[in-house]
Amino acid sequence: MILLTGVTGKIGGETARQLIARGAKLRALVRDVAKAADLKAAGVERVVGDIADVDTVRRALTGIEKAFLLLPNGEQQEASEKQFTDLCVAAGVKHLVKMSSMEATATAQTPIPRAHWAVEEYIRASGLAWTMVKPNFFMQNLLASAKSIREQDKFSLPMGQGTTGMADARDIGAVCAEVLTGTGHAGKSHEITGPEVLTFSQVAERFSEVLGRKIEYVPMPMAQFRERMTGILKPWHLNAVCQLFQEIADIGLDHTTGTFRQLIGREPIPLRQFIRDHEALFRA
């Protein structure tokens, strides 16, 4: 049996859907049972509680062979993921799969990638079989700009002309499902990108091509972004996100990987296809 965390989010939800399609035997640890109602209908066991609660996690891990660790970024993420790792060891879990990021390296300078890397190192030292899934930017993040694209023919983000190798959540979920049900993944870090390295101005060009009207990318000053998100994100999280976005603006990504193609046997979804698939959200 596989234990899933993060199933009410973009990547966790897509991973769950693809595992269900494969007929995998699943249990999900969830805080909000209402948000996971569709999982119950699909035959997924649910354990309700917080991942920070030791007794709840112990109960969720009973009889689990593989576990998928995906937590939202936050101040307590590193501590919670390390505790989860220890509980996996104690429960006799055979294989732990962690959702990390390509920015998580030994030389990471910003809080979110540093936390991911610290947990990666902790898992590697735990004695568990492990796999790290490390995407870059999610195409689904662009859905937050659907309203301004639809109503104003523009979108604004604080990433300057930084570059990303953005991937569709459906593709990332496919990789996670393969890692959790396939073989030969232990001890590997899978860096996942889409098929293109793009600036956000080039992202706007893709929108223009698909929608048939001019869409503009307007870089947002980081101070304006910080002001807009104050009160929405907690201070630690806001500072961490600002630093991460500034890193994208300053450094960005200079390559794509062939990992998705090697694992899944097809090309990753390009941005144009993502826009077509969600076209109704972006049209006036």
Category from helices, strands and their pairing: alpha/beta
Low-confidence stretches: none
- Using the 3D structure, state the CATH architecture of one domain: 3-Layer(aba) Sandwich
CATH homologous superfamily descriptor of one domain: NAD(P)-binding Rossmann-like Domain
What separation lies between the terminal Cα atoms?
A: 45 Å
Radius of gyration: 19 Å
Order of helices and strands: EHEHEHEHEHEHEEHEEHEHHHHH
The averaged pLDDT comes out at 96
Topology-level CATH name of one domain: Rossmann fold
Strand content: 5-15%
Helical percentage: 40-55%
Q: How is the main sheet built?
A: 7 strands, parallel
Overall shape: globular
CATH class of one domain: Alpha Beta
With strands numbered from the N-terminus, the spatial order across the biggest sheet is 3-2-1-4-5-6-9
Query: What's the number of extended β-strand segments?
Result: 11
Put simply, the count of helices is 13
Describe the protein.
- The protein has 284 residues and is an alpha/beta fold.
- It has a domain at 2-134 and 169-191: 3-Layer(aba) Sandwich (Rossmann fold), CATH 3.40.50.720.
- It has 13 helices and eleven strands.
- It has helices spanning 10-21, 37-41, 54-61, 77-91, 111-124, 146-152, 169-181, 200-211, 222-229, 235-250, 259-264, 271-277, 279-282; strands at residues 2-4, 26-30, 45-48, 66-69, 95-99, 129-135, 154-155, 163-164, 188-192, 198-199, 216-217.
- The strands form three sheets. A seven-stranded parallel β-sheet has the order 3-2-1-4-5-6-9, with helices on both faces. A two-stranded parallel sheet has the order 7-11.
- Helix 4 packs parallel to helix 5, helix 8 packs across helix 12 and helix 9 runs antiparallel to helix 10 (235-250).
- The protein is globular, with a radius of gyration of 19 Å.
- 39% of the residues are buried.
- The mean pLDDT is 96.
